[in-house]
Amino acid sequence: MKRELRRILALLALAVLAPGGRASGQTNSQYYFIRQIPLGGVAGSPSLTIDAEGRRLYITHSTHIDLVNLDTGDPCGVISNVPSPRGLAIVPKLHRGFVSNSREGSVSLLGLTTQAVTANLKAAAGTVSMLYEPGRGEVYAFNTRALSATVLDADSGAIVATIPIPAKPGNAVADSGLDRVYCTLFDRNEVAVLNTKNHTFTGAWPLKPGKEPAGLAVDSENHRLFVGCRNKRLILLDDHSGKVLSSVPIGAGVDATAFDPSTHLVFCSGSDGTTTIARAETPDTLAVIQTLHTEKNARLMALDPLTHKIYLATTDYEAQLDPDPGVPAPRPRTLPDSFKLLVYGAAP
What we know:
Layout: H1 2-15, E1 31-38, E2 47-51, E3 56-60, E4 65-69, E5 75-79, E6 85-91, E7 96-101, E8 106-111, E9 116-122, E10 127-133, E11 138-143, E12 148-153, E13 159-164, E14 169-175, E15 180-185, E16 190-195, E17 200-206, E18 213-219, E19 224-229, E20 233-238, E21 244-249, E22 254-260, E23 265-270, E24 274-282, E25 285-293, E26 300-303, E27 310-314, E28 340-346
Antiparallel strand pairs: 1-28, 2-3, 3-4, 4-5, 6-7, 7-8, 8-9, 10-11, 11-12, 12-13, 14-15, 15-16, 16-17, 18-19, 19-20, 20-21, 22-23, 23-24, 24-25, 26-27, 27-28
């Protein structure tokens, strides 16, 4: 009887949010379409980065960077003097951004107040993904062709270290409380672990049953990783040990994964026109609560932690005729000047 009473009290404690619990800030509201923001032009190889403090969304293209005001939803500028922008890391306290240039293997230093490039820094071949690690005030540039991470001092821009990585690095997150940076290794079905104190690769964790990891997000409070995988699985990982704790189904073609620490919701956006929304019910469990229907190829996403809105990027496509039986359907062509953002939020 006493054992059963203790079990009930423990469950009640979770419900009122004991440390690591999940009740505070939760929302049971379904996400819905709010608006479309036309940007025009072609998508190129875009990425979406939120500056929550500066209230700007940065959308990189192959030739320039679009800016959107997060409070009004209106386009508010274009940065065109960057060579081949792909990824962007925001350093809020310095009002500075670091932009990767994939073709040049370089990083452009961007003043967020002036929206002007102040320097171009050498990285390595195939610089794509960017990450700011606030614990040590450093920026990581992940080089897909050089198989490495270039570590830059955020204040001076000087190269601090180059970390070899045994496979092509993808999306990355930091858990400063554990002095670690993590990045996906798509071809190896693993997450790489980098030590931020001595700038070394310390190992890689398998993601079974996940394969082809693409999206990556972190819950720094509970030291958990969320890995969106292309075999339509979302993996919950203990980032102390690398142990797989939970797995739930998601849509096809996932590219981005985001975690909202206030609502404990995890978002996985895919090219199949769906964004799967799961809730971290406890630090060790996930549950899918909504399959949000978006648009085809809306796989790139950013989450505004203040408003809890998500922003997805996509383009419009030409209508296709049904192919003849046994003939593969041709790849759909995008309509010119149709690049846009789709905005979704929780119902009030």
